[in-house]
Amino acid sequence: MELPFHLRALPPEALDVLRFFGTLNDPLAYSDEIMEGVRLSERMFGKVIRRLVTKGYLAMDGDQAYRLSDEGQESVLVLREYDAAAPVSSGPAKRGPNKKVARRMVIVMPRTLRASQSAEVTIGFHPAAAGQSLGQSAEVVVRVSLINAQPQRPQDVVFHLSDSAGQQTITIIPDAINKLRLKAQAFQLGPNPDDIQVAGGMYVDVPVLPAGTPPDEDAAYGTPVTLAEL
Questions:
Q1: How far apart are CA 226 and CA 230, in angstroms?
Q2: Where in the chain is the domain with CATH 2.60.40.10?
Q3: Does 184 have pLDDT greater than 50?
Q4: pTM for this model (two decimals)
Q5: What local confidence, expressed as pLDDT, does residue 1 receive?
Q6: For residue 128, how many other CB atoms are within 10 A of its CB?
Q7: Listed residue (79, 83, 73, 86) closest to 24, CA to CA
Q8: Which of 32, 53, 175, 230 has a CA positioned 20 to 30 A from the CA of residue 148?
Q9: Nearest-CA neighbor of 84 among 141, 30, 19, 139?
Q10: Residues carrying CATH 1.10.10.10, the chain
Q11: Does domain 5-85 have CATH number 3.40.50.2300?
């Protein structure tokens, strides 16, 4: 079993806080309890708790009290299943990355969009160029964030990249505002939950025209990303 990307993106201390909440009868705990239960310094506790609150896993419930949100409770269950299937190893530290290879990430979408009308966006990778072979597949997550469009929450598109091309399609709906921004950030995941490397990214600004305007042709945008042979 693998952890979802949104949990892999959290620091190990944050995952330990979620695990701590999973041991409680009531999903509510005070700062001192959390710091003692997870053995966090005040400085680290401040960083971790802000991350969990910002991401929506915890909510403040009075002075120095924190409660699991619905998403936090779901994440606690996922962590429990993950830990049962793959207990934490006390073996040697993870191996560092070997050679780096370059791949081209591409976004294909209409040159102009129509307000309140759905449009397809294709995200993909060119095949490996000569001398840029990975040697084995790589797990890559492309996080797509939108400004002035739906869905509002970032979408994670998962690729298991070999040396061949790969692509996936998502659907977006522009708001009735004259410009949309799409940001795509690529992350390479390693074998451990905290093995996350930023591979690269780009953003595209696309004009949004009134609904009913004739459709436009597609345009392609690309950028190089860097992957590691793990």
A1: 12
A2: 100-228
A3: yes
A4: 0.63
A5: 67
A6: 20
A7: 73
A8: 53
A9: 19
A10: 5-85
A11: no
